Amino acid sequence: MMWRRMGCMGAVLAALLGGCGGGGDDPEASITDPVQRCSSIGTQPLVANGTACVPSASTPVLLLLVVDRNGEVGSCSGVKVAPGRVLTAAHCVDASARAVVGVLWDGQGNATQVRAQSWVAHPAFSETPQYFVNDVAVVSFADPLPSPAVPVMLSQSSGKGQAILLSGWGAPDYVLSVGSALIDEVRDDYLRITYDGTLSNACPGDSGGPATRVIGGRQVVVGLVSAGTGGCNPGGRTFFSNLAKPQVSDFIRAQAAGAELL
What PROSITE patterns has UniProt attached to this entry (predicted)? Predict the structure, then answer.
């Protein structure tokens, strides 16, 4: 199951959608405090005891609206990695995409829409019964986006048992959210988590949103939300594209000019 929100009405372009989320470099610890979660992406909690975050100009996690050839609007998430470059999932900008719009926020919480100049999906993107392969794309904007960029870890893969934070604009509430999870399987193609109901999971609309770890004292992108099984329910598994895979790393180096690549 792809984690892309589909079938939204054109009014969504004005109404603006939102996310469900999901840990750090410590193999034992996950971040459960809502202030810490939201501050990891440059925002503050929307509610005191939750993990929904106030949309802000200071977050690199973007809402992307994708218009297909029939005029239907879907949504995905993305993460800014360079002045005019955003990483997202390749399945979000497949052959049916006719326009991609980034939603930007100012300091007062007002939103504006900026149309992407172009986008390119990994040329070897493909699908297996459970997960996508090379599910990475780069969306380019003509002008630099005002939000901060986040570094990308390409030189080393994450490991089993490490904690991540996952961020996105997906279900169930469609607001920007961050949550914690622990990686339980690592392969060349993906990082995987299994949701047991105690931490967090990705949901439709979170596709392309970042999985980050604390490396060198900073949040660094190590994966992108790609696909899942079992919906958002306990027992479900979510797969993140492993950005350290050589084919993926080479693609990001070639397409994301100006990104800080570690």
Answer: PROKAR_LIPOPROTEIN (PS51257), TRYPSIN_DOM (PS50240), TRYPSIN_HIS (PS00134)
